[in-house]
Input
Amino acid sequence: MEDRIIVALDAPDAATALSLVDRVGPACGFYKVGLELFAAEGPGVVEALTGRGKRVFLDLKLHDIPNTVAGAVARVGALGVTFVTMHAMGGREMLVAASGAAPGSLTLLGVTVLTSLDGPGLEAVFGRRVDDAGAEADRLARLVREGGLGGAVCSAAEAARVGETMGPEACIVTPGIRLAGDAVHDQRRVRTASQAFAAGATHIVVGRPVAAAADPAAAFARIAAEARGEDAA
Ligand code: C5P
Output
């Protein structure tokens, strides 16, 4: 179970991020590096993590012309990361080019609809009426599958639907995880780890519930226990 729980390193620099890795301890072997940390530290922070035997989810949310994204994917592949994200809205050709550039060790994850976009926000992007953001996510998940990507990032609320569209081999990665009674922060629709896995997530991403805890190792252990269906108290 622990290998399916990814802790988000939403930190401004490598020192802060690696100190959290040390405080979480050996139970966690999988970390997400996002744009903030990668912009500050570049590939060095990825190497620091892989050098400690950790797997890395590089959340770059790539979105550019096919040739540019394929080049970026090839460089990311050489870093030895496990997951990298890109926007489905980059289109079929971009997704196909990315798939062609990825080494077998790298799983590409498609981002369908950002959860920060609500109905009116999506209508402004698409230039048409949007009645069901979930249906748009599902349509984009189909594009992700047809582009040859190995998985998708989505909310746990959409995991079952997106998982069905992507097929049984796909990785379904869901953020927005909280223990019952935790602070929700800026997340809207949170789920517990066990709810996310029951809905079809293959991996979950947990940020502040671990990073902001007084004892990050204990917080990680509580989430893993809850995911296994044990009493989280
Ligand atoms: O702190 P928290 O657990 O909310 O962090 C969740 C992580 O997942 C953050 O790194 C955030 O950027 C990311 N994420 C998210 N919702 C999405 C996509 C990514 O919370 N829809």
The two ends are 18 Å apart (CA to CA). The pocket of cytidine-5'-monophosphate is lined by residues 8, 10, 32, 34, 115, 153, 175-176, 185, 187, 205-209 (CB under 6 Å).
